[in-house]
Design goal:
single chain, 303 residues, alpha+beta, Endonuclease I-creI, 2 domains, four-stranded antiparallel β-sheet
Length: 303
């Protein structure tokens, strides 16, 4: 099951009383595909939305509405509810105070404690949300510019910033950002999905931090190995050219330890000396060795 369907299932399980059923169906009808005095058509690719629409319509209007299933070329099922009975359409318009020429949200129908359920109905009609493990994106494909503007205002009133874009002739109200999506899911009654999304976000943050640390550790290891290789090359050059005995005692000691311990860190070398010194002290001695080796390469004086 997709994350969108998880949200739909949780929403449906929370619609438990008369006021909530009324408000949720209002959102589904107002944002359905076709809403006119001649025809009402609710379409969805979600069997969950189809089932709840049928149930809510029966509860609110006491009428069964036939569902027609068709299969698209992509093997995706489309569930359609077409209402052409003029008396039933008139009753829907009367009960929900719908305007015949424009779709607009009537705030008097939605009492404060049902606004979230109304928005849940909108999501069931035209909403979707991406799997949070892949992308943070929630959107409503809205049938009309006026409703798109009103949805943007509604979401802004609950502290969520939404934007609108036109896609293939349709208005899409979309939300980016995990916190805004979490607030929206909680508002429409999908608090468990909100928690799931938060857990995914925590997992992603921990994983990204672990990857950064691993990359940092790998880079540090590469740096240490490359430095050790250069040091050994310098020491071998000196050994082959004039012998390590020509080096001062303190330089010869670190050179011999490095040759015997190619993977030892500077700190470990410093602790292994007859007179232990710090990591920076060891690094200083290797710089002196590097300078001698460079003089040998260029034909300069070694001491």
């Amino acid at each position: 099951m997709s994350f969108s369907n998880d949200v739909r299932s949780e929403i449906c399980s929370s619609i438990s009383d008369k006021d909530k059923r009324f408000a949720c169906l209002y959102g589904m009808l107002l944002f359905c595909r076709t809403l006119s005095p001649e025809e009402i058509c609710f379409q969805t690719e979600s069997s969950i939305s189809a089932d709840i629409f049928s149930e809510l319509f029966r509860n609110v209007f006491g009428r069964e509405v036939q569902c027609v299933e068709t299969v698209r070329r992509t093997d995706v099922k489309l569930y359609s509810f077409e209402i052409t009975d003029r008396e039933l359409i008139d009753e829907v318009y009367r009960v929900y105070h719908l305007f015949r020429n424009v779709r607009t949200i009537d705030p008097e129908i939605i009492v404060t404690n049902s606004l979230g359920v109304f928005t849940a109905g909108v999501f069931l009609a035209c909403g979707s949300v991406n799997d949070p493990s892949k992308e943070y994106h929630l959107e409503f494909t809205v049938p009309g510019e006026v409703l798109a503007e009103e949805m943007t205002v509604l979401l802004r009133d609950i502290g969520v910033t939404a934007k609108t874009v036109t896609r293939r002739g349709q208005y899409v109200v979309y939300i980016k950002g995990s916190e805004s999506i979490e607030d929206t899911l909680t508002f429409i009654g999908a608090s468990q999905c909100t928690l799931e999304m938060m857990n995914v976000k925590i997992y992603k943050d921990v994983r990204n931090k672990a990857n950064r640390l691993a990359n940092c550790d790998a880079a540090n290891i590469d740096k240490v190995v490359n430095a050790a290789v250069r040091q050994i090359e310098d020491i071998r050059l000196i050994e082959d050219s004039c012998g390590l005995d020509t080096l001062p005692d303190e330089l010869r000691e670190v050179a011999e330890i490095r040759l015997e311990n190619t993977d030892m860190s500077l700190q470990e070398i410093g602790q292994s000396l007859s007179v232990p010194i710090s990591r920076s002290g060891v690094n200083h001695r290797f710089r002196k060795i590097a300078k001698i080796a460079e003089e040998l390469r260029t034909g300069g004086v070694t001491r």
